[in-house]
């Protein structure tokens, strides 16, 4: 018997489709982001202005780019997670700024070195996790200390240099249609990543490895190579995010990208990429990044982030993560 | 007859294999102590012993707390923030230096640790969240709450605690070393209970434990709650050592606690090891960090060297346990 | 059976997702008897007994023990009610000593502290009783991980006995035991029967049923078929009840050629010892015997998923070095694993992706870029060829029925044009119609020139499907059956390694004979 060809069954009634959409994390997060933005705009009308929207999206883009790798690693499964993305992004920014040193002359070299260093961290993560069987969370948590230790040694505690003008233009300049370049770049990367996941044999293998590593292995997939590549890509994209951040802030400081570590996990998970692996996609992460950025800005207007520093936002991030986990991150029951 | 001797041979090799982590830990301990005694001139003086044990006790205590949880098959990435939260609660309540408030403040600190642990335990055992991410999430909650309780370093610890912490008995036995001994005895007591055995059973094979009528859910909740309580003790030790509160005081201890227990021979997947090894692991870890200091590693390189040592230790221990398990399995098959 | 039976289970139902494990099964047994629960794999006998022990929560149904309703929330409650079980997959903690395992969950205490001396007093009598099964020693303090599989099984039995059960469940407890160990166990079982204990016994070994069981309940497809008294039923009928009616299987046209495709010489891996055989192109070669005699290890070793200890594999005259499944796939070997849920499919992923997994790279642009159109066409072509029923190729595989899932596990290999197809019990747990269609697919693969190796837990499947069957026992090929000899009866007796002489002994039910479990050569 042959089958209907459409990707969504056209025969099913609209109610059924609505019910399915109501359970789709991408749709739910999208609605939540929109609702939050509306509330924020009512509380503070400035929120609704075009320039404020662009700023929000720009802030979301750094998180979004850093979370690309997080999405890949989590999809690849096996308790996969990369906590070192914040440290790696900082590392890339620091190396980049040192070699750029405010001029365009060494831009290419700086980018290559920064991303190369990031890739090395990714390889170390992958080797530790795959060959030495260190749990991913512990390995990448430990790598944070190593990477920051290296940064300290490399900079002597005082990061030098600044972003190349070209990078600054790329990130903040109104390149096309009055939209900052970084958003175009994010769009391009998003298209690339979504294509990679949905329309390449690599993407399908990644999902298979995350969904069922045994089945993937027994179908001739080199599961270790696939997972290793996920960790390397994660570090590289974190590096790209760090460089973009450098273009935005112009100069670097020691814990530049630290605040992106937890949100990169939260954005991915909120967007429906489940920590069990093999489920989700980058579209959800984009929505998740925007949702968290709106939430963050909203909390700032409410001045919850005022006197006590990061505390309330930290607590809220933690709780959001727990709520999402309880919704779709449960383990098997003991009793069958 | 032949099979009998062969069997005796394998059981001897089994014994050595089971003891292998302990042997490795002991060798490492001797090496680090020797090196420390050589490089650190005042190592075997009252001052040197006090200084060393004063820094060892908090990390050893957190390592014991983490060990209880890891043995049961869990892990607690929020343990450092539990230390922080309970210490800031304690310091807030005894600020002002009035010694009469100390007992209440200590009780509140312990209760805070127990409550945090209970919260983690319920998330993991009842809601069935993955331990690693659930406690990762709660680490931000606890850390955030700690910042709300005490937004910046401050508060003074009564002299009763700080002074008592620096006492030395019998020339070379400082109070922190005695406390370490008490901690170990408490662990032995726990181990002798049924629940002590169940920690290992659940961590070794939760399904088999369940089928053997072990109350698996309760054991998991207990492990996290006990771990949280012990972590709170580490918070008190940190306060007594530093003399004032700090809203980040314990956060870095999470990774150290995992490293210490792994060096001490506890299996990260649960079911094997023990708190005694973790205490030794904490001593080794602290001494290595001191060595990095005394060996003249440049200030800026210390963080990197320390981080690298921790990662390498965890990775090697992971490789060792994977090896011995594989060897054990293939032996079991052909036996 | 009267309504006052000691143990009564009525209308027990249990579904796992789309699979029905128990479909309203009824069961009753009396105290002081040894009661066998028989039936092919997947007939629900293990699930039924797990409902009794509280490990599985039934969707429906009632359990009554000694007239009282039993509604356990878990094994703790059933243990208190006096039910102990020896499970097929062991319930021992590997790192614990034998003693600690025996008293796990029932540790005696003195002043709040575990009392090791009392634990010893509790456990030692049983270990001593089974000393013979441990080769004459009493391994109280040995680590369970260091015991061999048979000894572990005996520890498991002792663990159940320490709890002094009123109902003892033995779920394939003899499968990994040696003859002497079985003898000791049966002596104890008879003593328990005398003292009024109900022993429930799952086994596939006919001789054991004859030797120790009083009554037997036969299960099929999740419900009970019949309960009989062993002594009143002729042995032949019992075999028939166990394996299903011995209907003449319709044999299919053979497509075997003379060309040797796969040549295996002296292959040892896992449980498999020294296997030497050839498979010709177009031939379907069956691997028979009791379950777990090395069939799975043979197949996974050929696929590179299990490292061989010795032996060579030659494919079309060339030596194959399959060190990983990836290389095996490259050499055009296909593998259908025994457990489709955990090994064959990424259940949460779309049907399309599961189909494409082994072959997507071949169709990709520059080895990477996939065309959705081309993928859909490829999947649809295969789906049609193997008549798979599905809603949309984008639906998760988990939405399909078991039979259709299995067709995808098989069908995904079609585009790789396999030269050798390895199948590990592919028809397990799928319904009759899907099975027939699956076999058609297997035949088609063979007809296209592939050499097919197939294991099956149901001997009838082998008779129906295969040109030739190798019978494995304890890791060795003990028999080769083809042509007129290829009947279910030959396979059953060959699998149980029973000779006519053994049967004669068994039917007289002398206590100390267990022909089904001969001494292992490697012990």
UniProtKB/TrEMBL annotation, chain A:
GO terms for molecular function: transmembrane transporter activity. The chain crosses the membrane at residues 26-47, 53-76, 83-100, 106-130, 137-155, 175-197, 228-248. InterPro entries: ABC_transp_permease. It is a multi-pass membrane protein. It is found in: Cell membrane. The keyword RNA-binding does not apply. It comes from the Bacteria. The keyword Transmembrane helix applies. Keywords: Cell membrane, Membrane, Transmembrane, Transmembrane helix. GO terms for cellular component: plasma membrane. Its main location: membrane. This is Ribose ABC transporter permease.
From TrEMBL, chain B:
InterPro entries: ABC_transp_permease. It holds the Pfam family BPD_transp_2. One of its GO terms (molecular function) is transmembrane transporter activity. One of its GO terms (cellular component) is plasma membrane. The chain crosses the membrane at residues 20-39, 51-84, 104-125, 132-150, 170-190, 221-242, 278-298, 304-322. It is found in: Cell membrane. The keyword Metal-binding does not apply. It is a multi-pass membrane protein. Keywords: Cell membrane, Membrane, Transmembrane, Transmembrane helix. This is Sugar ABC transporter permease. It comes from Nocardiopsis ansamitocini.
UniProtKB/TrEMBL annotation, chain C:
The keyword Signal does not apply. Keywords: ATP-binding, Nucleotide-binding, Repeat, Transport. Residues 7-246, 255-499 form the ABC transporter domain. GO terms for molecular function: ATP binding; ATP hydrolysis activity. Pfam families: ABC_tran (PF00005). InterPro entries: AAA+_ATPase, ABC_carbohydrate_import_ATPase, ABC_transporter-like_ATP-bd, ABC_transporter-like_CS, P-loop_NTPase. The keyword Nucleotide-binding applies. It comes from the Bacteria. PANTHER family: CARBOHYDRATE TRANSPORT ATP-BINDING PROTEIN MG119-RELATED, GALACTOFURANOSE TRANSPORTER ATP-BINDING PROTEIN YTFR. This is Ribose import ATP-binding protein RbsA. It comes from Nocardiopsis ansamitocini.
């Amino acid at each position: 018997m042959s089958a209907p060809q459409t990707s969504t069954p056209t025969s099913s009634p609209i109610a059924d489709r609505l019910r399915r959409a109501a359970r789709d994390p991408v749709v739910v997060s999208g609605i939540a982001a929109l609702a939050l933005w509306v509330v924020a705009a009512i509380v503070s009308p400035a929120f609704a202005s075009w320039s404020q929207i662009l700023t929000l999206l720009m802030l979301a883009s750094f998180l979004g780019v850093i979370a690309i790798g997080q999405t890949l690693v989590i999809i690849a499964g096996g308790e996969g997670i990369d906590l070192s993305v914040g440290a790696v992004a900082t590392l890339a920014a620091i190396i980049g700024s040192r070699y750029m040193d405010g001029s365009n002359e060494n831009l290419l070299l700086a980018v290559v070195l920064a991303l190369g260093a990031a890739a090395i961290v990714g390889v170390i993560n992958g080797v530790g996790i795959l060959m030495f069987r260190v749990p991913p969370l512990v390995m990448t948590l430990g790598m944070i200390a190593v990477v920051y230790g290296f940064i300290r040694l490399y900079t002597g505690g005082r990061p030098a240099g600044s972003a190349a003008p070209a990078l600054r233009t790329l990130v903040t300049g109104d390149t096309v249609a009055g939209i900052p370049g970084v958003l175009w770049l994010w769009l391009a990367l998003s298209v690339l990543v979504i294509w990679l996941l949905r329309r390449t044999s690599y993407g399908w293998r990644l999902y298979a490895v995350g969904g069922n590593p045994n089945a993937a292995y027994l179908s001739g997939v080199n599961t270790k190579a696939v997972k290793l590549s996920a960790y390397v890509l994660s570090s590289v994209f974190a590096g790209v995010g760090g460089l973009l951040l450098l273009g935005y802030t112009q100069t670097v400081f020691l814990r530049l990208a630290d605040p992106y570590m937890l949100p990169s996990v939260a954005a991915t998970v909120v967007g429906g990429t489940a920590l069990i692996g093999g489920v989700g996609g980058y579209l959800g992460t984009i929505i998740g990044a925007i949702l968290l950025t709106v939430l963050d800005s909203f909390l700032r207007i409410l001045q919850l982030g005022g006197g006590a520093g990061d505390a309330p936002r930290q607590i809220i991030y933690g709780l959001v993560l727990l709520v999402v986990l309880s919704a779709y991150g449960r383990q098997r029951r003991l009793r069958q | 007859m032949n099979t009998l001797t062969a069997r005796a041979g394998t059981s001897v090799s089994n014994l050595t294999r089971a003891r292998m982590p302990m042997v490795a830990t002991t060798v490492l301990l001797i090496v680090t102590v020797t090196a420390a005694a050589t490089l650190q001139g005042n190592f075997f003086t009252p001052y040197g012993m006090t200084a060393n044990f004063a820094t060892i006790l908090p990390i050893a205590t957190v390592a014991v707390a983490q060990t209880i949880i890891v043995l049961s098959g869990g892990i607690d990435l929020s343990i450092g923030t539990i230390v922080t939260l309970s210490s800031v609660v304690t310091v807030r309540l005894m600020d002002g230096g009035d010694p009469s408030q100390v007992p209440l403040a200590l009780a509140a600190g312990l209760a805070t640790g127990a409550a945090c642990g209970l919260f983690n335990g319920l998330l993991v055992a009842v809601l069935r969240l993955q331990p690693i991410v659930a406690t990762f999430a709660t680490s931000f909650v606890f850390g955030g709450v700690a910042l709300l309780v005490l937004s910046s370093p401050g508060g003074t610890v009564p002299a009763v605690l700080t002074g008592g912490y620096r006492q030395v008995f019998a020339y070379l036995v400082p109070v922190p070393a005695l406390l370490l001994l008490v901690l170990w005895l408490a662990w032995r007591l726990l181990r002798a209970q049924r629940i002590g055995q169940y920690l290992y059973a659940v961590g070794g094979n939760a399904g088999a434990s369940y089928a053997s009528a072990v109350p698996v859910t309760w054991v998991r909740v207990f492990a996290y709650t006990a771990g949280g309580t012990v972590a709170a003790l580490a918070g008190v030790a940190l306060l007594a050592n530093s003399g004032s509160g700090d809203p980040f005081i314990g956060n870095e201890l999470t990774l150290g606690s995992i490293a210490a227990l792994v060096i001490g021979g506890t299996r990260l997947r649960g079911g094997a090891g023990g708190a005694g090894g973790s205490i030794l692991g904490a001593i080794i870890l602290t001494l290595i960090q001191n060595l990095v200091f005394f060996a003249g590693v440049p200030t800026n390189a210390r963080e990197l060297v320390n981080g690298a040592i921790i990662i390498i230790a965890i990775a090697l221990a992971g490789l060792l346990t994977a090896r011995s398990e594989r060897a054990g399995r293939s032996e079991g098959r052909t036996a | 059976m009267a309504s006052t039976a000691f143990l009564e289970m009525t209308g027990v139902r249990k579904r796992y997702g789309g699979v029905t494990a128990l479909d309203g099964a009824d069961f009753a047994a009396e105290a002081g008897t040894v009661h066998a629960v028989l039936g092919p794999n997947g007939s629900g006998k293990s699930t039924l007994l797990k409902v009794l022990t509280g490990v599985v929560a039934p969707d429906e149904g009632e359990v009554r023990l000694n007239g009282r309703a039993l509604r356990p929330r878990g094994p703790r409650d059933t243990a208190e009610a006096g039910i102990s079980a020896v499970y097929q997959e062991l319930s021992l903690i590997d790192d614990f000593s034998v003693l600690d395992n025996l008293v796990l969950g029932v540790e005696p205490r003195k002043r709040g502290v575990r009392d090791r001396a009392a634990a010893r007093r509790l456990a030692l009598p049983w270990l001593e009783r089974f000393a013979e099964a441990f080769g004459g020693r009493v391994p109280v303090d040995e680590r369970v991980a260091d015991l061999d599989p048979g000894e572990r099984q005996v520890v498991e039995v002792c663990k159940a006995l320490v709890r002094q059960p009123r109902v003892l469940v033995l779920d394939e407890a003899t499968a990994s035991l040696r003859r002497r160990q079985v003898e000791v166990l049966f002596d104890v079982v008879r003593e328990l029967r005398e003292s009024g204990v109900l022993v429930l016994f799952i086994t596939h070994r006919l001789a054991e049923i004859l030797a120790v069981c009083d009554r037997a309940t036969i299960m099929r497809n999740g419900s009970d078929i019949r309960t009989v008294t062993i002594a009143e039923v002729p042995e032949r009928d019992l075999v028939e009840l166990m394996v299903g009616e011995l209907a003449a299987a319709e044999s299919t046209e053979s497509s075997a050629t003379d060309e040797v495709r796969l040549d295996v010489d002296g292959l040892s891996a896992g449980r498999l010892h020294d296997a030497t055989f050839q498979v010709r192109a177009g031939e379907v070669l069956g691997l028979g015997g009791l379950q777990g005699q090395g069939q799975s290890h043979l197949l996974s070793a050929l696929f590179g998923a299990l490292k061989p200890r010795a032996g060579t594999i030659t494919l079309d005259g060339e030596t194959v070095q399959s060190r990983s499944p990836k290389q095996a796939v490259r050499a055009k070997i296909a593998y259908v694993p025994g457990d489709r849920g955990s090994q064959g499919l990424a259940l949460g992923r779309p049907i399309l992706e599961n189909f494409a997994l082994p072959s997507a790279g071949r169709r990709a642009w520059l080895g990477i870029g996939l065309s959705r159109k081309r993928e859909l066409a490829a999947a649809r072509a295969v789906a049609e060829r193997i008549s798979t029923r599905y809603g949309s190729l984008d639906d998760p595989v988990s939405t399909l029925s078991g039979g259709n899932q299995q067709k995808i596990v098989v069908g995904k290999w079609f585009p790789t044009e396999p030269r050798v197809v390895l199948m590990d019990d592919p028809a397990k747990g799928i319904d009759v119609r899907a099975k027939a269609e699956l076999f058609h697919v297997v035949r088609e693969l063979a007809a296209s020139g592939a050499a097919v190796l197939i294991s099956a837990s149901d001997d009838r499947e082998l008779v129906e499907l295969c040109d030739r069957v190798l019978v494995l026992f304890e890791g060795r090929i003990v028999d080769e059956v083809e042509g007129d000899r290829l009947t279910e009866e030959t396979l059953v007796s060959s699998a149980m390694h029973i000779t006519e002489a053994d049967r004669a002994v068994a039917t007289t039910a002398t206590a100390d004979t267990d022909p089904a479990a001969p001494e292992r050569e490697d012990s």
